[in-house]
Amino acid sequence: MLFLSSALFMGWSLGANDAANIFGTAVGTKMVSFRTAAAISCLFIILGAVVGGSGAAHGLGALGAIDRLAGAFVVSLSAAVTVLWMTRFGLPVSTSQAIVGAIIGWNLFTGNPTDPVVLTRIVGTWVYGPILAGIFAMLLFLVVRKVVNNSTIHLLVLDRYTRNALLVAGAFGAYSLGANNIANVMGVFIQALDLPAREFAGLVLSGEQQLFLLGGFAIAVGVVTFSKRVMLTVGDNLFKLSPVSAFVVVVATALVLFIFSSTWLSDLFVSVGLPPIPLVPVSQSQACVGAVVGIGLVKGGWRIINYRLLGKIGLGWIATPMLSASLSYVLLFFMQNVFMQNVQM
After folding, report:
1. Measured in whole angstroms, how far is the alpha carbon of residue 293 from the centre of its chain?
2. Residues 66-81 pLDDT 10s
3. Cα separation, 204 vs 255, whole angstroms
């Protein structure tokens, strides 16, 4: 349990940072209260982690097969500390980037090769994830704006519909985040810790699912205790969002997360002769920011986007994997040479 403490810390960091962006735009526009957003996020993140967390977790495991608890502990701790540092500056950085950097640090320290194909597949999502979110947001905004402008619905009724739509979209996004990003929390422990299947409330959970359940609860604690600041950063400071814009950003972000979390969608692509969708942890923060920028481009072009904050966010995205890899390498050295714990088989 001591070694798992770093995973719990990582889960808390993810809840405090990445999970905030599911409802960040809704909370930033005051359409959904923080308390309601946190409750829905916690429930559906845990559900997504337990039900659909295996795909992305195994995709991340292909980057580095960490087979000792001490090594998994250090990798997870390095990523969590990196995310915490960035979060304290109010930057919506990605736990996906942090854990990837930490795994690369483990590969460098142990002399294990980093598969360039796997790394390219993961890093690729950092690029086209926000681009997809921006495209989805632009298209959705144009459609929704046309529907609203041509509608005769009373403004109070429209406001109620928008709030309900934000809640549904947020629940969908939270589920997808749990299914996808639980890999960042517990993925490095799958090979290092073999748990027997157990029954909980009439349901039999595999060893992996038990880890995912524990990680889901850790994320939920992070959402409740520390996510409000980042919600307001994404939902208010980068670009001023209207309620309709908030709905579009939530849906666009949720779609990106769903695409890279869905096993059946990837199988469907293969069945029709298309390449499979990479089931890897996706940067939810980047997708959210991409969607916000997409809305900004449709509404007023490049002039009305807060470029100073956008630049700070971009700097955080570059610095995160580098800092995490360096910290992982240093801490692995201390774990093996000072605390005399083997970090690999």
Report:
1. 18
2. 999 999 999 999 998 8
3. 30
